[in-house]
Amino acid sequence: MEKWKQNLIAAILLFAISQYSFSQKTNSVTGTISDGKTPLEFVDVVLKPLTDTTKTAAYAVTDSSGKFVLENISSAEYILKFRLIGFKSNSQKIKYTGTPISLSNIVLQEDANLLNTVVVNSQKKQIQKTNEGFVFNAVSNISQTGGTAIDMLKNIPTVAVDADDAISLRGKTPLILINGKNSAITNMNQIPASSIESIEIITSPTAKYDANAESGIINIKLKKNNLNGLNGAAVLGGGFGAKGRMNSSVLLNNKTDKWNVGLAYDNRFAGRTKSIKGERTNYFIDDEHFINQSRSDERTEGLQNLKLNVDFSPNDRNTISFEALGNMESQDNDETLKTDILNSSNQFYSSNKRHSLELERSKAAEFAFNYDRKFSDDRKSLTASITTSYNFHRENTDIDTDNYDENYAPIGDTFWQRTHNYEKENISNAIVNYAFPISEKSIIETGYKGTFRLFNSDFQSADLTNGEYVVNPMVSNIFDFNEQINAVYALWNSYSGSKENQKWKYNLGLRAENVSNNGATQNNSDHFSNDYLKIFPSGSVQLNLKSDEFLKFGYSKRINRPDLDDLNPFIDITDALNPHGGNPYLKPEIIHIVELSYNKDWDKYSLSGNAFYRNANNTIRQYGVLQDNGVILLQPQNIGNTVTYGLETIFSFKPISFYDGNISLTAFQQNINAGNLPQSEDVVSSAFSWYGKIINNFTPWKGGKLQVIGNYNSAVATAQGKRIPIYNVDMGFQQKLGKSNARLGLVVTDMFNTLESGYKNNTLLFRNNRTSKSDTRALMLTFAYTFRSDFKEKLLENQFSTE
């Protein structure tokens, strides 16, 4: 018993001595940081000599209890700085004399400019409001794990995506940016959902943004890890639709006081099927009167991305960064098209079957240099960037066509063809933005943006003749296009009232854009050029009724410039009965937009409503003209004037602790005056359209999340008819495993296999219908794991820098 007591006394003395030794650690500065209520983890603690603040004497990061330790400190005067994204930076002077310093509780204040009002506050912020729209956090969309940017966009409020992957906002195609910049990566299926941090929807862009955004801007921000230390994560997924699918990703990052280096790789491989049926009646053509077509596609596709980011911050006010993105895409498409033609008496006229094997390979690369300068006055800022992106696309197709009689017996020999379509594109941006205060309540923003685009397309078609493929110059073409857009802007922002209680907010801007482009086909047989300067004013006034309620009225003038496909005069006759081409004589649309917004937040609910009016001159629409031989030639035309007005609402709610939801609805009326067309009576003159979606998020138990999303897009008017309505339901489930450093996910897209696209046109000369159905119903199982404990679940929860 005495021996036991002696051992106990010795252990107590040893523990006391060790604790005393730890607390008296020499050459150290210690402390604890919180937000006033709870400890803050991952706070950067930087110690700089007062005589030279460009140098760092010591660096640490707070642990889960908010504590930090700086060691090996020399006697001197210092500035001690504390930084954490979402909080205001803090600093204080200390004088170290050789005696350990223990600081009392240090409190960091949230930065209201960085932390916008959260509309849905479930396990993860889903939607953040901004002055120009909202930001949708990609990780909250667990029902699209393993998909692409297209799949992600399908489930974002107010965004409509049809079954052919056409994207629209308020009934028109938006401007799409990658990391805030124009990119040669224009196919949203080239971007895996796993590489997306957030998607910003800008429905009320100011003069700071490109004017070529009639319905708004969609800015896709790619992931950029900004956590301290060495950390990373890996994701592996697999599943099937009609065919198998697989995806994986790996992310690594290391951040120190001055450097942040990240590397990410992701891929996606899938097999898909598609079936298309079409029928057409040519009213005044007797021979080729009824045309029935059916097509089946077997497709395999692969996608790989590699991303590098390097950030260097020599001091608190300057940051230089470099980003590089490499993309490789492959797609093999095996297609069979069967065509039956009957005369006006419903008798057999002709029949053929066209088989093609199309091999596509694309490579894209993007490089960006960015500079960010901060000032002692946080209202003042300077940013600059130079970016360039390249896209190389090669498509080779072997085609064989057989003709048949009415008994489906072959007629004559098989007709063999080969085509290739080689495209090269480069888009570069030079951007400078500078903001500075002119008074206590007013800020001026100015800037320049130059966009430079080069494009070359080489399309060649060859027919097999006497055992050799001979190029057919009638259906072959080389097209060169280049464009320069130089823009400058000035923007005035002001408010009335106090800084904490701003009663009125004002915004007034002016943007000038000079556009110069030219294009030429092979041997300059078709050549066009455009050079014009346009001025685009914008303005808004906001009345803050309460801290959680406001009204906003805005006006802007915008432009819809014809894109490359619209201007390319080459006629593609791959489908001989439905050729299509561009129109080099198109004029840009000029649009005047007025918008009235209302926002209101409650404890568990939030409502955002927008009424908009849009008047567009020189409206560009695809328009089909029936030729004498029964062929319908489809080309874009400036059909006339279009007036669109409608209402857009987003309602978010969290009535109970384990459930939250979001309902969005967009409805609009279009009135079209097609006075520029010779047969304007063929054009739809009035149409009402709407689309909506509901997002349901459940937390059935600890660590589990269930998401069910429903979409519905009503019929949408086209120039000569309408697109059919589309609807689908997606489901996703995610479960945390272990110590929350791993997750298991299950996704089912288009649960009821209802998603299909198509259109119905009816004119004085012809009627045609078409439906397309892909294997949109698919199941995916994913596993994600983080392999550093200090990283925890922040990568899985998508807590990435939005800078």
UniProtKB/TrEMBL annotation:
It is found in: Cell outer membrane. InterPro entries: Beta-barrel_TonB_sf, CarboxyPept-like_regulatory, OMP_b-brl_3, Plug_dom, Plug_dom_sf. Gene3D superfamilies: TonB-dependent receptor, beta-barrel domain, TonB-dependent receptor, plug domain. Residues 1-23 form the signal peptide. Residues 373-785 form the Outer membrane protein beta-barrel domain. The keyword Lipid biosynthesis does not apply. GO terms for cellular component: cell outer membrane. Keywords: Cell outer membrane, Membrane, Receptor, Signal. Pfam families: CarbopepD_reg_2, OMP_b-brl_3, Plug. This is Outer membrane receptor proteins, mostly Fe transport. It comes from Flavobacterium johnsoniae.
